[in-house]
Amino acid sequence: MLARLQRAVVLSLAVAAAVWAIAFVLAGLPLLAMIGAGAITFGYAVVLGVEFALMRAINRDDPAPPASASQLLRAWWSESVLAVRVFGWRQPFRANAVADWLPVSCNPSPRRAVLLVHGFVCNRAFWNPWMRRLRREDVPYLAVNLEPVFGSIDDYADIVEEAVQRSTAATGLAPVIVAHSMGGLAVRAWSARYSGEARVERIVTIGTPHRGTWLGRFASTPNGRQMRLGAAWQGGLRSDGSTRYTCFYSHCDNIVFPCSNATLPGADNRHLYGRAHVELAFQPEVIDEALRWASIDRAPSARRA
C or N terminus of the chain, fewer CB within 10 Å? Predict the structure, then answer.
């Protein structure tokens, strides 16, 4: 469903930009043609800029180190480029380009399965780079689609449960769950319903609004409202198993702020400097953490603040 919606948006913007450009070129106004087509095509970067400005203001009272102007500029540019890849190509047109890969039988395996859970207005193609990397490393994996796209986060618990059962049956081992943004809340909703922490090896969340986000005040969908600061829904989530969590967060996260809201008490909370919201999910430190936990004979690593 989401892939079709995003394809329609991308194609509509492309047509609108082309019509604008052609109309003004024919009218003898090539500069306006270029400016208008560029605004239609890259206007999202302005929206991202507004998000970064709001984030910087709200984060002033956050205990995380403040982001410098150069870090914010670099994060804005990286997120602008990555947004085209993720929302303009990968999710609309490559949703099924990389298949899940699980062992056919539960023979002893040197790797646990990695279950990938995407965030708000995303689909499984968000994880295509991860899935290719995991396949090269011979790590079993499974990526879900959280639907309905604009439903309640509670609706996703059964989807996560089915994936956990499949990955556990295929490997004979408790899986590692990696969740980005709202996906981390979906995992916690699953855990509350199915006593999930005892059935997984590790849960890695990336930019998850565990205590909501300031931007949630503008949300109108059920899952968006559940991510508002202080939303009552968040009180029903389990927190006693947070020692099984690794939570990555950043002072340049343009979606989840105050940025420390992406941490959990008792978890292994790791701050990554200068990384924006989507960009966080593709950092080497994050992927290496998942691979470490997927290995049966992993060596323990030191806890990092």
Answer: C
